[in-house]
Design a protein that fits this description.
The complex is a heterotrimer of chains A (181), B (227) and C (660).
Chain A (H helix, E strand, L loop, with lengths): L1 H22 L19 E3 L7 E3 L8 E6 L4 H15 L4 E7 L3 H11 L5 E5 L3 H5 L7 E5 L5 E6 L4 H22 L1
Parallel strand pairs in A: 3-4, 4-5
Antiparallel strand pairs in A: 1-2, 3-6, 6-7
Chain B lengths: L1 H14 L8 H14 L16 H15 L4 H12 L16 H13 L17 H15 L4 H12 L14 H24 L10 H17 L1
Helix pairs in contact in B: 2-3, 5-6, 5-7
Chain C lengths: L1 H29 L2 H30 L6 H6 L6 H6 L5 H22 L5 H25 L23 H30 L4 H33 L9 H26 L3 H24 L12 H25 L14 H33 L7 H21 L10 H25 L3 H24 L9 H10 L2 H26 L1 E7 L4 E4 L2 E12 L4 E11 L2 E6 L2 E5 L4 E5 L1 E4 L3 E11 L3 E10 L1 H19 L23
Helix pairs in contact in C: 1-2, 1-6, 2-5, 2-6, 5-6, 5-7, 6-7, 6-11, 7-8, 7-9, 7-10, 8-9, 8-18, 9-10, 9-12, 10-11, 12-13, 13-15, 14-15, 15-17, 17-18
Classes of the chains: A alpha/beta (181), B mainly alpha (227), C alpha+beta (660).
């Protein structure tokens, strides 16, 4: 009989534990399915020159940051200085995916804020972006020289994010590659 | 230190070809998949896998060697692309779908309603006006035009976005409680209801149990105390 | 200056409500009449202070006082006055203040309407009400101060989310909170009863009108939200099983169970413990709802700007209030009489089934809403629990509920025989089964057939019961006779009939929408058209215009059926430059039997505009039915058997209440 009296408070306490854990999590961040998969096949125009095609194969051979951005994306502006710095220091190759943008808008945006990208894939209709399981911008994929996605950063790359999460991934890839050669 | 050791092991393994941990079957499967997705130079854009003349066979052997070396699919593509350029790119399969436009539209609609728009959080891609949802709808349509069944089209997106993209959670290990919970509760409620029924004597004057007697006494005492 | 006065009023209210809690509990414990009288006065004073604070905040919004940060971030001078006012609660801080004001008002109402209550019970209930308000006031003052100043003072504000600039949504939160918070009264009474360790049928009579009041308001609040989502979000749906909708629905379901269990408690003096538990649960679910909406643990289309710190605070409040109440229940409920059991052929059995099914339904919605959070917490997997889940689980439970709810009111309290109601049951079967078969044949839908069959089953069952109460056919039934009997029936009987008929009508609407609604989306150039269910929608023109604080693009869509012109719709898309936001203002032609709806999306003359058109059969029946339920609730409050009025309440009798 006493069980039926304690049961409600017991159930409630369990729920409280879950709600407390829930507080520490961000429900809008969806874990990626892409880790350790190869970059999806694509062939899309370059932003600057639509006649040039960028293909998946072009990413192979060098560790690359594939950065999804758009001139409409406010948070992209936040990470832009970090990307510019990386580009100036020639730390890593950065390939942009200009997502759902108008060509002129993107070009103006790059002119104003600088262009850190080795090349820019113009993905106006999310063809590549969906194949990479992207949910928003900015998102950044670390792709190893073999063309495999090793890490995905959701949200802007701040200097902290760079130092704490992305740099170690790139270092690990470098160590592997070095060992291989 | 650890990544270094790990990668060293990996590389050591890969220099021994088959020792990359790939079985013969796996290698064959990869070679097969690759030669299906590549054209042979000068074959009018038909898959390499369909051909057996000397150049095609040589290319297949080359692919097999590369696979055995432990190269990734992409590295192999790059290798071939560097040598043959676009000649080996397989132009997108032109599927002559026998579906009518109406059928495609209604099936796209059906599938879209079961997929969640990942940027708007609580809408299906059918309901959402978000640009990404629109593009995902187009992808669904493309898959259906390419001959996918509804289930295959759904799976295609699930493969990219995970279970999250399915509006209705699939019945699997981590959702068993979710799907069976309500039925269990109804059952439990039913059992409780019946037990309460039987516990009741038909005549209201029926004798009290020992426990009830004690409670009555307690209640009376309580009343006296507070009075 | 005014903002500071508001701030001081809130702080005073906090102190007074804490004192109200302390004095109420102590006074009741020591039977100290003066302390208990203090609690009475504190409740009223607190309400006055909260109204004052709210009025000052509303004033700041209406005069666009941008030195108040909340006004600057949520308002704009170009907004129409009515939305400046409703903008007061269109944000987290202001809506929380509204919540608190409503809670304090209910506290004061407990004093006004509780004159005939035993003084101990009233003092304790007021104390609990005061303590709960204290918690929320502390939450407001320490984490979400609405009167915070801003310096330098901006020239203009950031505006209000355009989606919220709408009459439906302006009214939605006040009603919702009257419901949510209204359940706090039942909660306070339940905890007070547990402290006293004594509950009887009389207690249930005290509580029931409050439950009815809260439930009716909540029903209206949910209807307003549904109507708003229907025409404003433009997805052509009236319910989306969105987490925020679900958390308003859970207290409603639990409240419905509570409503019916108080019936058993007041009539038979049984199921008291269960009723106490439900009273605690119902208000706790309101608190859980607040937690969900304001902490951001679940994503939703209409969550407030989220802040985990606030989540922590509300969780702490939840632990104190609900955890405390349930712990008290674990310790004290043993003292409360267990009540008699029941027979299968009795009204009690029916009401118990009602309670079981409603509680299972609540639990199902809870499970579906929280499951993603639980799975994420345990394994890190992210899953979606969308509408299909609820349709497959909640739907059948509701169907079962309708089966029983048509029959149970026909059965007498205590003990009855099937033979007595056999004739009525046969009529119900004779009406609903052929109808279901007809629907299956002509409507080509099994779901539609079952649903319509159930609706008619409920309709006939309820009418038959009402007819019995009016003794139609039993004695001479002249018009005057019937009118007299009608007037003599207790309010609860009219309320019951109206609410149950309301559900039948609501069911008809839901089933029709689920089965026969039709929609079509296409890109239309000028002059092109789409058809749904025999209606042809033609896009004739698109014009741009300047609104007070937006730019709009309005389409002219002509609807024809055959050669007959049915209506001309002007769906609009608005661009709010200040808020940098677009809204879709769908346009509709509302009829009793269907709504024709058109929404226009982006586009241009060359490629055409995306136009969505909908045919929604009987959709307004859903809301009309739900409103009938709400008014049924209000009617029941007026029942003379309730202890709500200041008139001397009848003594609880051991006999089943007559007139049933």
């Amino acid at each position: 009989m006493s069980l039926s009296r304690i049961l409600p408070v017991g159930v409630f306490l369990i729920l409280v534990v879950f709600m407390a854990i829930g507080l520490t999590r961000d429900p809008s961040v969806i874990p990626t399915e892409m880790i350790d998969r190869e970059m999806p096949q694509f062939e899309l125009p370059e932003l600057y020159d639509p006649d040039i095609a960028v293909r998946t194969e072009d990413l192979v051979g060098e560790t690359t940051l594939v950065n999804v951005f758009g001139s409409w994306c406010v948070a992209c502006l936040q990470e832009h200085p970090t990307l510019m710095q990386l580009s100036r220091d020639r730390t890593v190759r950065i390939v942009g995916v200009n997502w759902r943008d108008k060509r002129e808008d993107a070009l103006t945006w790059l002119e104003r804020h600088g262009d850190p990208y080795a090349s820019i894939i113009f993905d106006a209709e999310s063809d590549l972006v969906i194949e990479m399981g992207v949910t928003g911008a900015p998102e950044t994929f670390v792709v190893d020289p073999r063309g495999r996605i090793r890490y995905k950063q959701i949200g802007p790359i701040t200097p902290d994010v760079w130092d704490d999460t992305i740099r170690p991934v790139i270092d690990a890839i470098a160590a592997e590659t070095e060992a291989a050669s | 230190m650890r990544p270094f050791v790990l990668s060293l092991l990996l590389v050591l393994a890969s220099t021994f070809g088959v020792a990359t941990g790939q079985t013969g079957e796996e290698i064959d499967a990869r070679v097969d998949a690759l030669s299906r997705s590549l054209s042979c130079p000068g074959c009018d854009g038909t898959p390499l896998a369909n051909h057996a003349f000397p150049l095609a066979t040589d290319l297949k052997t080359m692919i097999k060697d590369l696979v055995e070396e432990g190269r990734s699919d992409l590295e192999i593509r790059k290798y071939l692309y560097d040598r043959y350029g676009d000649a080996m790119t397989l132009s997108e399969l032109e599927t002559v779908s026998d579906l009518s436009a109406e059928e495609i539209k209604s099936r796209t609609e059906t599938v879209s309603k079961t997929l969640r728009c990942v940027v708007c959080q609580n809408q299906s891609i059918y309901d959402s006006n978000a640009p990404l949802a629109e593009d995902m709808r187009r992808l669904v349509q493309k898959r259906i035009e390419a001959g996918d069944s509804d289930e295959e089209a759904r799976e295609y997106l699930r493969n990219l976005y995970g279970d999250y993209v399915l509006m209705s959670p699939p019945l699997q290990m981590n959702t068993i409680l979710l799907w069976l919970g309500p039925a269990l509760l109804v059952l439990l409620g039913g059992v409780w209801f019946l037990s309460r029924l039987r516990a009741v004597p038909t005549a209201p004057e029926a004798a009290l149990t020992e426990e009830q007697r004690a409670r009555v006494a307690e209640a009376l005492a309580e009343r006296d105390r507070s009075a | 200056m005014l903002a500071e006065i508001g701030q001081i009023a809130l702080i005073l209210a906090l102190l007074i409500s804490a004192l109200q809690g302390w004095m109420g509990l102590q006074g009741a414990h020591q039977n100290d009449g003066r302390a208990m009288a203090f609690a009475d006065r504190a409740a009223v004073l607190q309400a006055v202070l909260c109204i004052g604070a709210f009025a000052l905040l509303a004033h700041a919004f209406m005069v666009s006082d941008f030195s108040v940060k909340l006004v600057a971030t949520n308002s704009h001078t170009s907004k129409p006055m009515i939305y400046k006012f409703s903008g007061t609660w269109g944000n987290h801080e202001g809506s929380m203040l509204l919540w608190i004001m409503v809670m304090a008002l209910f506290g004061a109402a407990m004093v006004w309407f509780g004159k005939t209550l035993p003084s101990g019970l009233r003092a304790r209930a007021l104390a609990i009400q005061g303590l709960t308000t204290t918690g929320f006031l502390a939450f407001l003052i320490f984490t979400s101060n609405p009167f915070e100043r801003l310096s330098p003072i901006p020239d203009n504000g950031n505006g209000l989310n355009p989606l919220l600039q709408d009459p439906g949504l302006a009214l939605h939160p006040p009603f919702l909170y009257l419901g949510y918070v209204g359940f706090s009264v039942a909660f306070s009474f339940a905890v007070a009863a547990l402290i006293e360790g004594r509950v009887d049928a009389m207690w249930a009579r005290w509580v029931r009108p409050w439950v009815l009041l809260a439930w009716s308001f909540l029903t209206i609040g949910i209807v307003l939200g549904s109507v708003w989502a229907y025409y404003e979000l433009g997805w052509g749906g009236w319910w989306f099983w969105d987490p925020v909708e679900n958390v308003s629905f859970m207290p409603w379901l639990a409240g419905t169970a509570l409503l019916h269990s108080t019936l058993v408690a007041q009539a038979r003096g049984s199921f008291i413990r269960w009723t106490l538990l439900l009273a605690i649960t119902t208000f706790s679910l309101s608190l859980v709802g607040t937690f969900i909406v304001r902490s951001g643990v679940l994503t939703s289309v209409h969550a407030f700007a989220v802040d985990p710190d606030r989540g922590v605070f509300i969780l702490a409040l939840l632990i104190l209030a609900t955890g405390g109440a349930l712990a008290l229940y674990a310790m004290r409920s043993g003292k409360i009489a267990h009540g008699a059991g029941f027979e299968l052929e009795s009204r009690e059995a029916g009401l118990v089934l009602n309670n079981i099914l409603l509680v299972v339904a609540t639990a199902t919605v809870f499970l579906g809403t929280f499951y993603p959070l639980v799975i994420d917490a345990m394994t890190g997997d992210k899953i979606t629990v969308g509408p299909p889940y609820f349709e497959w689980t909640f739907g059948p439970i509701m169907a079962l509920l309708i089966v029983f709810m048509a029959v149970a009111p026909l059965i007498k309290w205590r003990s009855d025989t099937w033979t007595r109601i056999r004739k009525t049951l046969l009529i119900m079967v004779a009406a609903s089964v052929p109808l279901a078969i007809a629907v299956a044949i002509f409507g080509k839908s099994v779901f539609g057939a079952i649903g319509m069959g159930l609706a008619v089953w409920l309709l006939i069952g309820t009418l038959a019961n009402y007819g019995r109460k009016l003794r139609i056919g039993e004695t001479k039934s002249t018009a005057g006779n019937l009118l007299k009997r009608f007037a003599l029936l207790p309010g609860a009987t009219h309320g019951f009939a109206l609410a149950h008929l309301g559900l039948a009508i609501c069911t008809v609407g839901i089933v029709a929408m689920g089965t026969w609604s039709d929609e079509e989306v296409d890109r239309l150039k000028l002059g092109e058209s789409i058809s749904v269910s025999g209606y042809t929608f033609t896009l004739e023109s698109v014009d741009r215009a300047q609104g007070p604080n937006f730019v709009s693009e309005t389409g002219r869509v002509v609807i024809e059926r055959g050669d007959r012109r049915v209506a001309t719709l002007n769906p609009e898309q608005r661009m709010y430059p200040v808020e940098r936001n677009n809204t879709t203002e769908g346009a509709m032609e509302v009829g009793a039997l269907r709504i024709l709806y058109a929404a226009k999306g982006e586009g241009n003359p060359e490629e055409g505009w995306v136009v969505s058109v909908y045919y929604h059969p009987l959709v307004i029946w859903i809301w009309i039915g739900a409103l009938m339920m709400a008014f049924g609730g209000f009617l029941s409050i007026a029942d003379r058997r309730h202890a709500f009025s200041r008139r001397k309440a009848p003594q609880p009798s051991a006999q089943p209440v007559a007139a049933e």
